[in-house]
Amino acid sequence: MPVTDVTTDIAHCTLTIEAAFDATVERVWALYADPRQLEKVWGPPEVPATFVDHNLTPGAKCTYYMTDPNSGEKYYGWWIITEVDAPSLLTFDDGFGDADFNPAPGMPISKNVYRFEAADGGTRALYTSVYPDAASLQQVLDMGVIEGASSAINQIDAFLAG
Fold it and tell me: Could you state, in order of their start, the residue ranges of all structural domains in the chain?
């Protein structure tokens, strides 16, 4: 399993997931840079993603939705890209959205830093999400963010090997 550690720090409003992949940094980056690849692993395996807009340029808005295969219900999300240093760094604001990809009222927006570095013949990834306050972090923890993110990240090695 790629996920090697998960840390929550309520005092600093952070969630950090560490993972190790059996692929080069460039190959892992290519997954995030290509929406058709990314949608295969963004979200839990049972709730596939579809990226509508995807451009890893600072200031760009990426939009996506995930579809529940049983009910057909769609869950919308968006990113605003804040920094890109390919292939080692991607930062973005991440939020829940409505059907028009506007921020969903009452839902938190996190600031995310994804770092990729060569390690042990593969890639070490560090995914850090910072929430505006402890209540926002607790809200997503209660929604199952650790389980959802971990199951998504744990798909990456198999996808890259296939």
Answer: 3-161
Largest CA distance in the chain: 44
Q: How far is CA 139 from the centre of its chain?
A: 17
Give residue-wise pLDDT tens across range 38-91.
999 998 888 889 999 999 999 999 999 999 999 999 999 999 999 999 999 999
State how far the Cα of 156 lies from the Cα of 127, in Å rounded to an integer: 14
Which pLDDT score is estimated for 52? 98
CATH number for the domain formed by residue range(s) 3-161: 3.30.530.20
The C-alpha atoms of residue 1 and residue 19 are separated, in whole angstroms, by 8
Q: What is the mean pLDDT of residues 139-158?
A: 95
Report whether 141 contacts 7 (CB < 8 A). no
Q: Which of 136, 127, 145 is nearest to 107 (CA)?
A: 136
3-state secondary structure 26-79: HHHHHHHHCHHHHCCCCCCCCCCEEEEECCCCCCCEEEEEEECCCCCCEEEEEE
Q: Which residue has the tokens 């080692």?
A: 88
SS3 for 7?
A: strand
Model's pTM, two decimal places? 0.95
Place of tokens 């969630």: 15
Point out which residues pair with 127 in neighbouring strands.
Answer: 17, 114
Strand-pair category, 3-9 with 14-21: antiparallel
